[in-house]
Amino acid sequence: MQDIIISYSLEADLATAVGRIAPDRLFVLADDTTAACCWPIVKDYACLAGAQLITIGSTDGAKTLDTLATVWQRLGEQGATRHSALINLGGGMVTDLGGFAAATFKRGMAFVNVPTTLLAMVDASVGGKTGINFRGLKNEIGAFCDARTVVIHTPFLRTLDAENLRSGYAEMLKHGLISSAEETTGLLAFDIFDVDYEALADLVGRSIQVKERIVAEDPYEHGLRKALNLGHTIGHAFESFALENHAPVLHGYAVAWGLVCELYLSVTRCGFPMALFHQVEHFVSDVYGHFALDCKHYDHIFDLMTHDKKNIAGQINMTLLAAPGDVRINQVTQRDDIFEALDYYRES
Ligand code: GLY
Q: Given a cut of 80, is residue 10 above it in pLDDT?
């Protein structure tokens, strides 16, 4: 199980994280953005003395086998051993790809995640999922492997752009929904257009606790962890569809739209309260706008869902809610149900 530090002193907490590993060599993986904005903040820390920086592209489009091979190559060329450590300094792409690079290099070297985006803080960097996209499918290849330590330094959020902040917030809303009505209402009341960063830091800590609790019970997603996929069956299909059409959308936006569709199914199939559904629907529409859908694309969007990792025997297997905190996993969902949800969303 990984240790998660909500950091008030990045230097001291990174020193703790590195000290626990006592690596023979230290590497830092950053993307173009964090190499420019975050690496200068940490590079003179004594605990990072001699660390070698590896930089990769900064978009989800760089989360490929080629980029992974580049990281393995740089580690090999610069003398990394299985006793070395990699610090992943960046958003979810860096923590996912860097985690997978570390998990597989010489059969595994230690890594530390230092997430710099909200999405990575509350989701990607926590819980041991690592991987890359493959053949147009998100996170198709990967492994479960925990970071030794995750250092959450919320002041990074003050420099995050509004779109990426909102993207991460969708995962927090999901955590609220699978946790309780109280958490959900609190998240819906937060003013994401005029952010109070101290209040946000508090919400981030609570959101991570929701994920930690679930992952501790079911680290390999045999059951309960599927709760964390709420909104993602349809959301991932929207995201892949948008990418194919050269109009990529941020992950959390796709999740937010997917949440509306899957909560619609939660209302019709599991009795999720209609009033709360409408509250979520309005919040999503205010904050994330609307995903432009055409019924002529439903078949293809459905095909994209057939690749979802939760599916069993070719059937779409969704996570729905009977109420906030009352999670129903393994809901086999037929094509007609999904088309009905897409119709509702398109017309709403
Ligand atoms: N992002 C979902 C999970 O970590 O299981």
A: yes
